[in-house]
Amino acid sequence: RHSALFSFRSKDLKRGTPHPRGRGRQPVPITWHTTLLAFVGANGEGPLPWVERDYTPVSTARDWERGTVDLLVKVYADGLATSWLKAVPVGAEVWLSKPVKTLDVPALVADGGRAFRPASVLLLLAGTGCVALPQILAHRDPMTKLSISTPKRDQLKVPVDVVLSCREDDPLLVEDVAAWCAEEGDAAGLRNATVLVTPEGAGPPQFDAAAKAADAVLAASPNAAVVRARLDGALLREAYARMPQPCRVVVSGPDGFNAACRSALLDLVDDADDVTILAA
């Protein structure tokens, strides 16, 4: 009710690639984002008539190289960029930056973090922070998903579990989660998924169409569970206890969710640098 997939196409040959290669260069596995330039007119963020917002695409680097990109965006009635984006007519010109690195793979850290090759990955995601999920999972099979060849040591062929929190009226990526849970083999998508469903958000819906309820989508997935609750210490301890060590924990969501996860994880992880925090 509050989020939508915005699809863009480009013929600009200078749009770049998340994985530069050729002329002796090997592609470096990363997750990435792009910056949207929104022409909102006069605003309180500065003297210029536009604002910048970073978005992590849910489409792949291969799609970007072919000239397409999909952004999953939650639209806020008072959001400068998102309300502008919702009003942009189909076919209008929109400016996106060249790809920018978010995290190194397989360590899943930004520059300066403690890098190690994890034996497992636990993803704690909320709202549009879920966009980190498809990008990370693409590196379980980079040749097929990204059309890049990377050494096996740099591929995420380790158990990946996710705890995904979404609102009752905004269940994001749950159909994809069901598909990832059904995959098999060493490049399988998700080992386990827990979807936390919280009450509907305040404010009127931005869109008329509504996705299927998370319960209905995940009912046939034996390695997925739907829980009507918010993430708490007990649930987090249970999820973390299942993970082979060393485990990389990636947190991505609104500021309040990120802060709560960081505080709870301090009692679980041996080193705070084992946790990567991303803004949604």
From the alpha-carbon coordinates, what is the Rg to the nearest angstrom?
A: 19 Å
Shape: globular
Report the major sheet.
Answer: 6 strands, parallel
> Fraction of residues in helices?
10-25%
Broad structural category: alpha/beta
Taken in chain order, the helices and strands follow as EEEHEHEEEHHEHEHEHEHE
Number of helices: 8
Unreliable stretches: none
Tally of extended strands?
Answer: 12
Strand content: 25-35%
- The span between the termini is 18 Å
Mean pLDDT: 94
Strand order, main sheet: write it out. 10-9-8-7-11-12
Relevant terms:
four-stranded antiparallel sheet; alpha/beta; 12 strands; about 280 residues; globular
Structural notes for this entry:
With 280 residues, the protein is an alpha/beta fold. The strands form 3 sheets. It has a 6-stranded parallel beta sheet, sandwiched between helices. Strand 8, helix 5 and strand 9 form a beta-alpha-beta unit. It has helices at residues 61-65, 80-87, 132-138, 142-146, 174-182, 214-218, 233-241, 255-265; strands at 3-9, 30-38, 51-55, 68-74, 95-96, 100-104, 120-126, 160-167, 192-198, 224-227, 247-253, 275-279.
